[in-house]
Amino acid sequence: MAETKLSSFKDQRWSLQGMTALVTGGTRGIGYAIVEGLAEFGASVHICARNQEDINKCLEEWKGKGFCVTGSTCDLLFHDQRQKLMETVALVFDGKLNILVNNAGIFTPKPIMDYTDEDITTTIGTNFVSGYHLCQLAHPLLKQSGNGSIVFISSIAGLKAWPFASVYAASKGAMNQCAKNLALEWAKDNIRANVVAPGAVMTILFENAAKLAGEWIMLSRIWCL
């Protein structure tokens, strides 16, 4: 393991040595930063993404930093691929998982009247249903660890109305409520559930969404709220 950049005080207080984590959508944007943070604190991390080349590139970078990170391909929209992912995680981490970060998501901005059934199914399926199902699949592993933590990467859009984001916002709002129910029902298993709801972050996802919306000025104003 590479030497951490953190002070010895922080090493002792925040160390994740011996902990295991799964981060979905870990090759880009917020997910990439989460992986780096967890690994730097000493956790062993498994990531998933749809593109194997992206995974390989990131794994090579992290290997050079001395981080313990593995990865596998998964399109979270599909039930069977989510099951396969968790089977892989169980093998990699010997049946125990401390941290599940539901980060992967998509955002296709459109006016309300332009959204199709397929748009809705794909967005809700990727952003919410996949995370819900992964929590179900991960429950035995999180419980087995004795100290489980679920983190949803939501959005301020789940709390505040955004133009051209009705479906995305609905998926994030559902995520927010789901975390509350998970925390309530699984506290007895020593599993916590929390949500992080950032504002606009200049990731590839946000940049692409902004271009599709064609409303850079409007989005910039939202960013400042």
From TrEMBL:
Claim: DNA-binding is one of the keywords in the record: no
Molecular function (GO) terms for this protein are: oxidoreductase activity
**InterPro entries hit by this protein:** KR_dom, NAD(P)-bd_dom_sf, SDR_fam, TR
Q: Does the keyword Hydrolase apply?
A: no
- The Ketoreductase domain sits at 19-202
Name the UniProt key words of this record, in alphabetical order. Answer: NADP, Oxidoreductase
Pfam families recorded for this chain? adh_short
Family (UniProt): Belongs to the short-chain dehydrogenases/reductases (SDR) family. SDR65C subfamily.
Xref: PANTHER family: ENOYL-(ACYL CARRIER) REDUCTASE, TROPINONE REDUCTASE
- Tell me what this protein is called: Ketoreductase domain-containing protein
What is the source species?
A: Medicago truncatula
